[in-house]
DNA sequence: ACCCGCCACTGACACTTGTCAATACATAAA
DNA sequence: TTTATGTATTGACAAGTGTCAGTGGCGGGT
C-alpha cells in the first residue's frame, strides 16, 4: 500500500486529530482526507463524528454576537441584565433540551480556573449539566450544591444536578449534606450549627457564579413534584402572592421574597445571599412561565439570562 | 405570507444568528431552517457562511487534544516544550498559510485580557497575523513590535505584522519607532537613550507573550531579503557558525547567540530578553528549516511550538 | 486449533450542502 | 419619472456528506 504523501497515523487518536485538522482547518473534503489518510471516506466520517463528540472539535456560537440581536438587547435594557442569550424558537423541538444546550454554552463561555460554581436544581438546570462540555480542561473548579437535598422526584434533584455538572467539567463536587426541608426551624438551626454544614455554607457564600432556573407555581409545576413543600404549603405561598420559585424560595410578582413559617425550615441559599453572587445565570423559558420569569428578572436575581425567542417576546410584550 | 411557527427576524444580523443556532446547536438541516425563516435554502447557506466568516460561529480544534498526538508528545519530550501543535502534512497545500492558521489558533487560545503580546516578523508570523480572529473581543490587549523597522521587503515587515495582528484582535498597537539596523553602535546607543524609545523598550520588557518564526540562512532565506543585514554580513555570521535567525538575531547549531559588530548595531529585543518572556510561541516548518528549527528549540527559545508533521518527524529523526 | 464476539472499517445509496448565473429589490443619481 | 448600480436572494445542478447493513481482522475463551 502506497503512502499518499502523508505519514500514516500510528495511533487511533492521532487519526481523529489529523482528520479534524484537515477537515475543519484546511477545509479539505472528506474524500481528499480519505485519500490522504488511506482509509475509506466512511471512516473519515466516523473520525469526524468522534472528534466532535469527544470535544476535539468544538463549534462555538458567539454569545457575544447573539447578545446583539434585537430581543436580547431589549431584554437587557428592560431588566438591566449584563447579558442575554435568546435562541430561536422552533415550535416543535424540546425546549428544555434546547435551553439546556444554550445555558451550557453560556456557562462554558464564562467559567474560568478557580471558579466556585453554585448549582440549583430543576429540569432546566439538569439539562444544562447534561450538555455542558469544556473545550479544554480547567483546573481548580468547584461545583457546590446550594440547596438541601430533596426526597421527591429524583430525576432532577439537587444532588444529581451538582454531581452531573461537576463530572462533565472535571470539577470538585460538593454536595450539601442535609435535607432541603426540616420539620422545625429549631432543628434547622441546630443542623446548620454543625461544623460540617458551617463549612459547606462558607463555600456556598464564596461561590462566584451560580446557575439556576425558574419554577412557576401552577398545578403541574416542578416545585409541586419536588417534595420540598406540601401542596397546602405551596397554596399558602400562592395566597401570599407567590408567582415563582427560585432555588426553593418563593417570590411575588415584583420579585420580593414571600416568607413564612415553611421558609424558615428550608436549608439552602437565601435570596439575599443569591443576589450577592457576582455572576448569576438564569435559564428559563416556556409559555407557562412568563409571569414567574418576569418576577425573577424584576427582582434582579439574574445577571445573565438565557431563553428562547417566544418567551423573550412575551416577556417584552407586557 | 404566513408566519411559519417562528417570529420573523426583523434585522439582518438577527437572521444570521438564528440560522447559526438552528444549524449548529439544533442540528437542523438547511432546508428546515429555510422553512422556519421563510427564505430559500441558498440564503441559509449564505447566512451560515456569513456567520462563520464574521466569527459568530467559530470552529475550534482543541490544541489540548492535538498536543496528545505521538509526534507532539515526542517533540515536547525532546525539547522540553510546554506545548506542541503538529498539524498534518498535505504535501500540496501552502505550508506557510496552514502553519499561520495553526499558530493563530494557538495564540487565540492563549490570549487573555490585559496581555502584552510581542510580535516578531517574517512570512509565517505575518500569516498568523492575517488569519487570527478572537471568538469574543478581549479588553486591554497590547501588541508590541519587538524589533526595529526594516527598509527591505515590505511584505512581511515588522510594522505590518504588528499592525495587522493588532487590528485583527482589537489590540492597542505599539510600533517601534526606529530602524532595525543603524550604521554605528554609538548612534544606536544614542537613539535608545531617547525617552520615546526607552518607553517602548519598557513595554517590550513587559510582554508576557511573544510570537516569532525561525529563519534559515540559506541563499533564498527571508533574512537575506529583509535588508537587516548585507549578504556579506550574513556570510560572516554563517562563518561563525550561525544556522538560524530569530527576531533578527543569529544563533548557532546549539542555539547559542552568534554575536558580532553588526549585532551591536541592531535595534530590537535581545535573545536574553526573549527568553525572559513567560510565553514564547514559535511557528515554523519546512524541509529547508530543519537545522534552523532544531537550533531554536535546543536553545530553549520557545515554550510553545507549532509545526507540521513532516517537519516534526524530521526534527525527531536526527 | 477453533469459534465467538467485538469493533474498526467499507461500499453504495439517499440525502444534504455548496455553487453560480440569473433575478428581484433597494437606493441614488439623472 | 427613468436609469444605473450594488446587494440580497433564488432555482437548479453538481458536489459533498451521513447512513447502515455487511465485511474483515483480532483477541479471549474453550
Automatic annotation (TrEMBL), chains A, B:
<keyword id="KW-0805">Transcription regulation</keyword>
<comment type="similarity">
    <text>Belongs to the SorC transcriptional regulatory family.</text>
</comment>
<dbReference type="InterPro" id="IPR037171">
    <property type="entry name" value="NagB/RpiA_transferase-like"/>
</dbReference>
<dbReference type="InterPro" id="IPR007324">
    <property type="entry name" value="Sugar-bd_dom_put"/>
</dbReference>
<dbReference type="InterPro" id="IPR013324">
    <property type="entry name" value="RNA_pol_sigma_r3/r4-like"/>
</dbReference>
<keyword id="KW-0804">Transcription</keyword>
<keyword id="KW-0238">DNA-binding</keyword>
<dbReference type="Pfam" id="PF08279">
    <property type="entry name" value="HTH_11"/>
</dbReference>
<dbReference type="GO" id="GO:0030246">
    <property type="term" value="F:carbohydrate binding"/>
</dbReference>
<dbReference type="InterPro" id="IPR051054">
    <property type="entry name" value="SorC_transcr_regulators"/>
</dbReference>
<feature type="domain" description="Helix-turn-helix type 11">
    <location>
        <begin position="22"/>
        <end position="55"/>
    </location>
</feature>
<protein>
    <submittedName>
        <fullName>HTH domain-containing protein</fullName>
    </submittedName>
</protein>
<dbReference type="InterPro" id="IPR013196">
    <property type="entry name" value="HTH_11"/>
</dbReference>
<dbReference type="GO" id="GO:0003677">
    <property type="term" value="F:DNA binding"/>
</dbReference>
<dbReference type="Pfam" id="PF04198">
    <property type="entry name" value="Sugar-bind"/>
</dbReference>
<feature type="domain" description="Sugar-binding">
    <location>
        <begin position="67"/>
        <end position="316"/>
    </location>
</feature>
<dbReference type="InterPro" id="IPR036388">
    <property type="entry name" value="WH-like_DNA-bd_sf"/>
</dbReference>
Amino acid at each position: 500500500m502506497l503512502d499518499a504523501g502523508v505519514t500514516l497515523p500510528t495511533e487511533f487518536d492521532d487519526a481523529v486529530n489529523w482528520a479534524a485538522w484537515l477537515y475543519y482547518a484546511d477545509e479539505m473534503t472528506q474524500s481528499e482526507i480519505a485519500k490522504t489518510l488511506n482509509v475509506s471516506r466512511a471512516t473519515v466520517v466516523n473520525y469526524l463524528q468522534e472528534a466532535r463528540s469527544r470535544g476535539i472539535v468544538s463549534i462555538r456560537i458567539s454569545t457575544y454576537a447573539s447578545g446583539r440581536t434585537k430581543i436580547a438587547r431589549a431584554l437587557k435594557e428592560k431588566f438591566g441584565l449584563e447579558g442575554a442569550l435568546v435562541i430561536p424558537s422552533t415550535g416543535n423541538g424540546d425546549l428544555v433540551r434546547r435551553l439546556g444546550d444554550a445555558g451550557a454554552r453560556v456557562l462554558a463561555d464564562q467559567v474560568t480556573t478557580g471558579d466556585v460554581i453554585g448549582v440549583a436544581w430543576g429540569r432546566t438546570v439538569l439539562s444544562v449539566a447534561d450538555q455542558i462540555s469544556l473545550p479544554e480542561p480547567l483546573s481548580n473548579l468547584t461545583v457546590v450544591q446550594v440547596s438541601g437535598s430533596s426526597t421527591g422526584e429524583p430525576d432532577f434533584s439537587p444532588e444529581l444536578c451538582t454531581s452531573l455538572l461537576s463530572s462533565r467539567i472535571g470539577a470538585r463536587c460538593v454536595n450539601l449534606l442535609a435535607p432541603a426541608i426540616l420539620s422545625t426551624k429549631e432543628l434547622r438551626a441546630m443542623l446548620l450549627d454543625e461544623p460540617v454544614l458551617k463549612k459547606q455554607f462558607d463555600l456556598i457564600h464564596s461561590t462566584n457564579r451560580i446557575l439556576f432556573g425558574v419554577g412557576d407555581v401552577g398545578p403541574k409545576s416542578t416545585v409541586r413534584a419536588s417534595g420540598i413543600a406540601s401542596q397546602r404549603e405551596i397554596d399558602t405561598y400562592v395566597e401570599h402572592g407567590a408567582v415563582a420559585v427560585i432555588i426553593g424560595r418563593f417570590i411575588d410578582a415584583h420579585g420580593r421574597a414571600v416568607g413564612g413559617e415553611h421558609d424558615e425550615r428550608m436549608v439552602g441559599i437565601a435570596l439575599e445571599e443569591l443576589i450577592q453572587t457576582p455572576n448569576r445565570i438564569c435559564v428559563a423559558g416556556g409559555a407557562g412561565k412568563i409571569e414567574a420569569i418576569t418576577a425573577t428578572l424584576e427582582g434582579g436575581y439574574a445577571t445573565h439570562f438565557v431563553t428562547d425567542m417566544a418567551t423573550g417576546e412575551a416577556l417584552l410584550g407586557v
